[in-house]
Design brief:
Radius of gyration: 14 Å
Oligomer: single chain
Number of helices: 2
Amino acid sequence: MVTIPWSAALDVHLLSSGDGVASMCIPWRADLSDRTGAVATGAVVSLVDQACGAAVISRLPRPLLISTLNLKVDHVRRPEPGCQVTAWSHCYSLSENMAFVCAEVWDLDPSDIVAAAQGVFSINRPIVV
């Protein structure tokens, strides 16, 4: 298993991944919180980026390197103080060299989102081990 240092620093947990869909969460931590005690927007964006990347990777037929080309995150509301945030992402379209992804983020209730996102990822060369 590959550990991504930034994921480890944020304590990102992979909840599920497969068939172009992925779910990840960041548990609440004081050092990742804003002045109100909510998970900070920078941590939310990092979670979205990683969840979207996981969705893309889960849809690829073989291991390939990917990179974020464009990621737009609309922050709908601030997460509840002291709550973890969860991201669900879906790779809805894949071409030879690009993948298109959407995501939603929530804290307590998946129907009451914290943020929504759209992303485009480049599909690069095979991973050499």
